[in-house]
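Severity: low
Component: inverse-folding endpoint
Summary: output formatting inconsistent between runs
Steps to reproduce: submit the following structure tokens with default settings.
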């Protein structure tokens, strides 16, 4: 209790006289004086720790929930961006003139760029822990190998360090495998969107004559190139 912390000083009670009852600031001033005395006697950290106790498990749970919330928020952004692209693809059939279709293409390109931005942010977030683990594992492994090479160690210590080095090597390999899996998933998402856009353009091409389609042809070629490029990453 802060009463015992502040060198036995008790929290002052408000007087009952009429003047202090009318003065609503009096209790606040007395509390301020009390806590100031407690801080002077015990220090700011002790007073704050006493007033606002924290359970380490609660703190860990808080950050875990925060990370989970961030991950779900990013996933929702991904779903929103993919849904927007799908909605635009479904509008192609309603465009009976090339000028209307070109406007949809323009919106679609912006929606795809939005998807790429959101997906990049999300997958970079997923990758970071494994990148950190890869670097950490490689660092520890190198330090252990240096110890084995340059230090005068006994047989048991050598055996223990070799075992530890192998464990870090395994962790590094697992991290690399996870990085590769996440990277493949990213390019699978972008490739799927590009494939849908390219397929829809092929269908659009069949509905318009060569002269009208000439203005859209460069976009189709660009989509084909991007799709081939993204597919190579899978």
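Observed output (run 2 of 3):
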């Amino acid at each position: 209790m802060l009463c015992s912390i502040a060198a036995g000083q008790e929290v002052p009670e408000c007087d009952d006289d009429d003047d202090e009852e009318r003065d609503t600031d009096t209790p606040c001033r007395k509390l301020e004086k009390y806590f100031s005395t407690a801080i002077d006697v015990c220090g700011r950290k002790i007073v704050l720790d006493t007033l606002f106790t924290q359970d380490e498990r609660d703190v860990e749970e808080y950050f875990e929930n925060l990370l989970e919330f961030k991950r779900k928020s990013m996933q929702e952004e991904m779903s929103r961006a993919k849904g927007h692209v799908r909605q635009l693809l479904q509008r192609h059939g309603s465009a009976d003139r090339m000028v209307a279709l070109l406007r949809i293409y323009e919106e679609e390109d912006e929606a795809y760029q939005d998807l790429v931005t959101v997906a990049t942010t999300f997958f970079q977030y997923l990758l970071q822990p494994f990148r950190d683990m890869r670097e950490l594992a490689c660092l520890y492994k190198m330090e252990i190998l240096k110890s084995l090479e340059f230090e005068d160690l006994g047989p048991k210590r050598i055996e223990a360090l070799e075992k530890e080095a192998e464990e870090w090597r395994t962790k590094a390999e697992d991290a690399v495998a996870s990085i590769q899996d996440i990277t493949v998933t990213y390019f699978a998402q972008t490739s799927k969107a590009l494939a849908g856009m390219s397929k829809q353009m092929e269908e659009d091409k069949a509905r318009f004559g060569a002269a009208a389609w000439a203005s859209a042809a460069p976009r189709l070629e660009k989509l084909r190139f991007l799709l081939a490029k993204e597919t190579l990453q899978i």
